[in-house]
Design brief:
alpha/beta, about 50% helix
Length: about 400
């Protein structure tokens, strides 16, 4: 057992202001020396050094702005004004622009007191010592676009952690047993398992963009009614014996009053994102929450597509919050994906009556006395390979 002092030695502390102090000392020494030898040229030197350090990042911000305007204006900014969102995100509106503006004004006021060719080394020294100070003070800090690119590239976002946790701690454990649970459910509820389409036998995972989810689907749409829970799956997990995992079956009513059963639920990590956006200490506003939801969807989709345990056992449904005015929006979205899955299944799976009527299937049943399986099998022949064409003898 570790004592509190040993725990304090293991837990890292927040970083302090020592870098700012270390950056300010050489600047103060350099400026003090220049004041002693040539005070009349100090203003022009500082202005030129600051301009040399800030114009480059501003030009880089223009390059970032081009990318955001062409490819991300609708997906990341939802078509909002460029000045209010894109310019600050690209670093074109803030400390860097202010520093460049002040430096330009200082350069104008310096007039003829500008450094000439013989003072190039003094200017270089001033540039060297000013760079750390501008860096630690945030003037030359990375823009929001650069930070977002780094976090997405290195998978350091909140959404990445939540997506991996949702997969490793839940989906990878329960999805392999989903079809077995549905079969047991149909047996106990006198339901025809064949009537459940391929889409209905998948776990439908709802991901709303606003991350505001309800604990009862019937509260959001009267065409959705809770039916029952699938049989519990008990798994020993993290010291808990027989931890219970379950899914809920809902009945969705379409426009023709036909009922469709399916297993559907919200992605529970979205509750964390929504609650974080409601806490001021989290520093997590609505725009950041929306971006994290989109990253969560994209990351979870990539993870599941490469998972053999979860393949063909799930369906991610992204819900656009801009259509919430429709009282039956949720049921329509679920039914639309169910119909899509049914159409895909109909195209891929032949009709059983056609299979029985097919001459090759009939011969197989007559000769072997058993029904031909639909599942593909790998058959290996032990015979020697034969040529595709029989060689013909020369007639001349």
């Amino acid at each position: 057992m570790q004592c509190p002092r040993e725990q304090d030695a293991l837990i890292p502390q927040p970083r302090g202001n020592l870098p700012k102090l270390c950056a300010a000392v050489p600047v103060a020494v350099t400026i003090g020396c220049m004041l002693l030898f040539s005070p009349e040229k100090l203003l022009g030197w500082i202005a030129m050094a600051v301009l040399m350090l800030t114009v480059g990042p501003l030009l880089h911000g223009l390059c970032l702005l081009a990318e955001e305007l062409i490819y991300h204006s609708n997906t990341r900014y939802r078509g909002q004004g460029m000045l209010s969102h894109m310019l600050p995100a690209c670093g074109l509106w803030g400390k860097t622009l202010l520093a460049a503006g002040v430096a330009s004004l200082m350069l104008y006021l310096a007039g003829h007191h500008l450094p000439h060719k013989g003072n190039i080394w003094e200017l270089l020294v001033l540039v060297f010592v000013l760079y750390p100070l501008l860096k630690v003070s945030g003037v030359l800090g990375p823009s929001a676009v650069e930070v977002s690119d780094i976090c997405e590239g290195r998978k350091k976002n909140v959404a990445h952690g939540l997506a991996w946790s949702f997969y490793l701690g839940y989906l990878r454990l329960v999805l392999p047993h989903l079809e077995q649970s549905i079969a047991a459910f149909c047996a106990t509820h006198q339901l025809n398992n064949i009537s459940w389409g391929r889409g209905s036998r998948k776990l439908l995972i709802l991901i709303p963009l606003n991350a505001n989810i309800s604990h009862k689907l019937e509260d959001e749409d009267e065409n959705i009614q809770f039916y029952d829970n699938l049989p519990n799956n008990e798994i020993d997990r993290a010291g808990v014996r027989g931890r219970v995992y379950k899914h809920s079956v809902y009945r969705i009513m379409d426009e023709n009053r036909k009922v469709h059963e399916c297993v559907v639920e919200y992605a529970t990590p979205l509750l964390t994102l929504y609650n974080m956006s409601q806490e001021s200490s989290a520093g997590f506003g609505e725009p950041e929450r929306r971006q994290q939801v989109l990253l969560f969807f994209r990351t979870l989709q990539d993870i599941l597509e490469h998972s053999l345990e979860c393949r063909n056992r799930y369906k991610l449904i992204l819900l656009n919050d801009e259509q919430e005015d429709d009282p039956h929006f949720l049921s329509k979205a679920i039914l639309r994906h169910l119909e899509q899955q049914e159409r895909e299944e109909f195209c891929l799976t032949p009709n059983p009556q056609q299979e029985r009527a097919h001459p090759f299937v009939g011969n197989a049943d007559t000769n072997n006395g058993e029904v031909m399986s639909r599942d593909p099998t790998l058959m290996i022949s032990l015979e020697q390979p034969q040529p595709l064409r029989v060689p013909t003898e020369d007639t001349y």
